């Protein structure tokens, strides 16, 4: 595979990205999974952030993005979002979701952790932004809901923020900017409780977009005992998940 990847320093960069964000697994299937999740999360945030920069008339900053690269011309490991056998990687779906006609995005403050230990449980507070991107030609009345969910318990650590507003046509609607939220404690845990910020966007009562901002790096989070069930119904071509 080393001779099939033409990117400069590809092995060093790939290992750096994975090791900084995840607990490294060294069997090939698990390591492949981690590299693809890294790619998908990177593309998710990048495309949402670039789309946010389309802004509004008089304040346009980014008018488009070139997907590079779409697919591989030989079996290899690369930054393509579709492999040689035309199997779509997670990044393909991350990009597709970020380019929906109506989409919601979240960013949260993320301190530099590459120079030292930065467990999410050590952070007392963070700032976050929430925005709506629309490629529709008409203003759309939408319902936005922002939740703050404990990773340990799966419960809300504070009241959700719900609002009904109009998403401006062909542009970005900034909803929350530099909002500060303090890490809360739960009844089950008196220590700092890492949490995700989850936003959902509904149009005419139907869910059309979601986004989630995690405390990073993910490798320090305890994700054991998630009680997530997965069933595959091959005869019906369906997958069922429960939690």
Summarize this structure as a short list of keywords or feature phrases:
four-stranded antiparallel β-sheet; hydrolase; three-stranded antiparallel β-sheet; alpha+beta; Beta-mannosidase_GH2; 243 residues; glycosidase; 3 helices; single chain; Beta-mannosidase B like protein; globular
Structure description:
With 243 residues, this protein is α+β, with helices and mostly antiparallel strands. Helices cover 19% and strands 30% of the residues. The protein contains three helices and nine strands; from the N terminus they run αααβββββββββ. It has helices at 10-21, 28-52, 90-98, and strands spanning 102-108, 125-134, 140-150, 161-167, 171-182, 195-203, 206-213, 229-233, 238-242. The strands form three sheets. Strands 4-3-6-7 form a four-stranded antiparallel β-sheet, with no helix packed on it. A three-stranded antiparallel β-sheet has the order 1-2-5, covered by helices on one side. A two-stranded antiparallel sheet has the order 8-9. The relative contact order is 0.14. Keywords: Glycosidase, Hydrolase. It comes from Verticillium longisporum (Verticillium dahliae var. longisporum).
Number of strands: 9
| Helix/strand/pairing category | alpha+beta
Q: Would you list the SSEs in sequence order as H and E?
A: HHHEEEEEEEEE
Our estimate of the beta-strand percent is: 25-35%
The CA-CA distance between the termini, in Å, is 38 Å
Pick out the low-confidence regions. Answer: none
**Number of distinct helices:** 3
Task: Please describe the biggest sheet, giving its number of strands, its sense, and whether it closes into a barrel.
Answer: 4 strands, antiparallel
Order of strands side by side in the largest beta sheet? 4-3-6-7
Keywords: Glycosidase, Hydrolase
Domain Mannosidase Ig/CBM-like: 127-220
Protein name: Beta-mannosidase B like protein
Pfam families: Mannosidase_ig
